[in-house]
Amino acid sequence: MNQRENFFAMLEGRKPEFIPNIMEVYKICIFGADRADQPLVGGLDAFGVNWVVTKEGEMPEPNRFMFEDIADWKEYVHFPDVDALGIEEAAKIELADVNRDEVIVNVYSPTGLFERLAAFMGFENALCSLVEDPESCQEFFEAFADYKIACMNRFIDAFQPDVITYFDDLATANGLFMSPAVYRSVIKPSHKRIIEAVTSRGVIFNQHTCGKCEKIIEDYVEMGAKMWSSAQVSNDLDGILEKYQGRLIVEGGWDSSGPASYNDATVEDIIAETVRCAKQYGPKGNFIFLPTLLNENGNAIFVGDPRLAPMIEAWHTVDKL
Amino acid sequence: MEKVFAELQEAIENGETQAAMDKTKDALKLGLRTDKIIQTAINPAFKDLGQKMFDGEIYVTDVLMASRAAHAAMYVMEPIISRFSGATKGIVAIGTVAGDLHDIGKNLVIMMLQGSGYTVIDLGIDVPVETFIDAVRTHKPDVLALSSLLTTTLPELDNLMEALVQQGLRSQVKVIVGGAPVTAEYAGRIKADAYANDLFEATEAVGDLVKNRIGKYAV
């Protein structure tokens, strides 16, 4: 099986031949997100939020809020014209050399419902708003979901992806930002619409939520997500892989707080963590390896690192199933 | 008297800002001292919340609302506290290390510390080593609290510890470190005094450090 065939075997609950890793299974597309969600090189996004580049990605400029009271959101939030974003042009550039018979085309859609609210009004204000004024939050999420769905449809038309990965971080390493009840009543209805918009067009929905979010994994599955990333070790990954075998692909596994994630991690540390991930999570047949290898310049996968080659080499000694 | 403490504690735990202010005013009208109010109502509220957070019963939103309520209680008491020098539980200088723009964890810790009666000097985000050193010299904090949310900025913690030693300041200030990629093992490696995994641990650990106690978060 090639990467694509192996991936679909996994997705359909058949036995894959090997455990995929994200560096080889995907053609990851990010240029659409650059236009619709957050600029890759920083600066103002289509909503007017200023993004600053850090070594581990972009983030909204700290302490610069568009509004602080969620009841005011309509005064400040002006939705961009999706026709003018240039998504089709982005797709042409990014798909120029892709071989669709070999790999999985995975389009990234960052800045989900909660992240966008936090980008507008700051994290603390956003969280308090969920509790203090849930009605205004729901109204905002509904409107933002409309925008997101319009973008997703454009992504699907232009990129014809196999997978859309939707990013919304809702948890710390210790637990969810908000209670499951608050998530379910305030965020989930709009989240569900976004998932249904993607899956109704035959595209696989990959939900990205960092941190310990295991209490709402069932919600993700119930709404139609077939994948979850970046599954971190603060969750019961063994239990989740077991419980959702054949229903959910778990992408992650790397101990992002362990020694293998330190800048000065040795090749031996990295290989040990690579082998642990393969042996511990791979045999269930629904795991994709997502390493978080970092150096002084940022994420090794994007900025390069001499330790990547020995890591992949080690991976190929243990990835057969 | 017990009733007003219990009601204030409950108001804080429930994140009820107005009720927390009202109950604090009631306590002051009864002639209760501010330190007694902090010790008997606010600190137990945070202790309870910390346990509930640890047990997974509450979430960041609940802590945030409770911190705001505690802040409101402190706001009511502030004019009285400021009349008595030395009424603060201690001085904490806090910042996110150079190269790191994250402020969420740091701000939550600040809210908790202020709500618990500490004087906090917020050095902000992306703070260079020199600024931390200047702050130690200028403000003479009991505790220097360092946050790093990026693995790539972890070495900044190491750099600062070295700078404190080189500048002859290490013995003058206790250092606590935290942030998503920071571990107790890493804190020990750089010879910090304490490591905290969350804001409750940070508050408890600062309490130990201020009193020169070797607490459970010492490394």
UniProtKB/TrEMBL annotation, chain A:
Residues 44-289 form the Uroporphyrinogen decarboxylase (URO-D) domain. It comes from Acetobacterium paludosum. Pfam families: URO-D. This is Uroporphyrinogen-III decarboxylase. SUPFAM superfamilies: UROD/MetE-like. One of its GO terms (biological process) is porphyrin-containing compound biosynthetic process. One of its GO terms (molecular function) is uroporphyrinogen decarboxylase activity. InterPro entries: Methanogen_methyltrans, UROD/MetE-like_sf, Uroporphyrinogen_deCOase. Transmembrane segments: none annotated.
Automatic annotation (TrEMBL), chain B:
InterPro entries: Cbl-bd_cap, Cobalamin-bd, Cobalamin-bd_sf, Met_Synthase/Corrinoid, Meth_synthase_dom. Pfam families: B12-binding, B12-binding_2. Residues 1-89 form the B12-binding N-terminal domain. Signal peptide: none annotated. One of its GO terms (cellular component) is cytosol. SMART domains: B12-binding_2. It comes from the Bacteria. Keywords: Cobalt, Metal-binding. GO terms for molecular function: cobalamin binding; metal ion binding; methionine synthase activity. Residues 89-219 form the B12-binding domain. PROSITE patterns: B12_BINDING, B12_BINDING_NTER. Belongs to the methylamine corrinoid protein family. This is Cobalamin-binding protein. It comes from Acetobacterium paludosum.
